[in-house]
Every structure is written in C-alpha cells, then in structure tokens.
Amino acid sequence: MSLMVLGTASHVGKSTVVAALCRALANRGIRLAPFKSQNMSLNSYVTRDGAEIGIAQAMQAAAARVEPMAEMNPILLKPRGDSVSQVVLLGRPYKDVPALEYYRETEYLLTRALQAAETLQKRFGHLVVEGAGGAAEMNLYTRDIANILLARELRYPIVLVADIERGGVFAQVYGTIRLLPPDIRP
SS3 sequence, 128-161? Predict the structure, then answer.
C-alpha cells in the first residue's frame, strides 16, 4: 500500500496530495505515515520530543492521524543565504553547508533517509512518500535523494502530480515522463 508522490515541478500540489492520500487511507483503517526524505523550508514544526521537521510533514502526519516524528522528514534544509543552508538531520542541527559541500554527502544522507523510512515502515506499515521539486531534474539524478535515488531504493508505485493552473500541463506531464530514467518511467 506504500506509494510515492512525485511532481512535474515545485509547488504543483505534492504536499496536499500526500495529505489527502494519508487521510483517505487512514479513514479506511490503514496505518501509515508520511515521509519526505529531504525538504527545503524555513517553515518548520517542532515535534513533542523537540525535533524539527518541515511543517508540511507535520500537517501530513495530522492527516494520517499519527504523531509527527523526526523520521518523517529526516533531512530539512533551511536556507541561510549566500547558497548556504543549515542541514537539520533527524530533527537536530547537523551543519551549515554550501550546496557543493552538501552534495558530497549524498550517499551518507541517502543512507540516513532510508534508515528513517525503514523505521517508519516498521512502526506504521505503510508510507506515503513525497518527492521534492520536479522529478525530471536530469542534472540532479546522481544526487537526487528526494526523488530518483529514493525511488530506486524504495521501489514503490509512483503517482505523478501536475498543476493544471500553471498552463501547459500536458507538456509538463509528457515531458516529465519522457525525461525520467527508463527504470523509473513505468
């Protein structure tokens, strides 16, 4: 029952779709949790145990009727300016890094995100996973721990979200699907 929600771009409604799926599945008695491996946001939520996660994951947890946990958003990037972000790892400040240095830790951060997903899966049974930005960012495929690398590891069915209000929605959907790596495209 676990699945992944990817988008054609940023701000196309992935967070809302994940929340809606969480509520619809919870209403059917399915125990599940939301998960977003990497989120970039200045809007955060502090869990009961003091961990900081993206506010969207806290809202999705409420939709799933479960307590928000650090594992639901194991990597939170908080922009600080000058291409530097604070990395919040499992709810706690990890380090401030420029983008190039952040990408040197792709393997480590992907491992930590997968461990968090495994923890949630064991506790809740199912996950509704939210990607980040656009799924077909070809320049990021080798370091995309929120979409492509994560999809390859989790191997969940994927739902693609697009925003018809932006115009050109059919080209967005077709282009995204055609640009995805062949192993992810189906």
Answer: EEECCCCCCCHHHHHHCCCCHHHHHHHCCCEEEE
Burial of 61 (0-12, 13-18, 19+ CB in 10 A): buried
What is the value of pTM for the model shown?
A: 0.95
Q: What is the C-alpha to C-alpha distance for residues 51 and 69, in angstroms, rounded to an integer?
A: 7
Three-class secondary structure of residue 86 per DSSP: strand
In whole angstroms, what is the distance from residue 23 CA to residue 66 CA?
10
Which residue in 55, 60, 32 sits closest to 117, CA to CA? 32
pLDDT in tens, 6-24: 999 999 999 999 999 999 9
pLDDT digits (tens, 9 = 90+) for 84-108: 999 999 999 999 999 888 999 999 9
- Phi and psi for 167 in degrees, rounded to 5? 80, 150
On whether the CB atoms of residues 77 and 40 are closer than 8 A, the answer is yes
Rounded Cα–Cα distance for residues 58 and 67 (Å): 8
Tokens of 43: 């809007």
Number of H helices, E strands in the chain: 6, 10
The rounded distance, in Å, linking the Cα atoms of 21 and 38 is 19
Instruction: Tell me the two tokens of residue 153.
Output: 């590891």
